[in-house]
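**Archive record**
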Amino acid sequence: MVAYKCARCKQLVEIGTNIRCPYCGHRILFKARGAGTKELKAR
């Protein structure tokens, strides 16, 4: 399974056959980044 993050409530969700967030019902989910990934600001 792949971990996703809900765009509305920011909960981590594992997607099986359901494509909606089980916490808030929102349909827009983004792939969650790994714990070691850091954001960098562009100069």
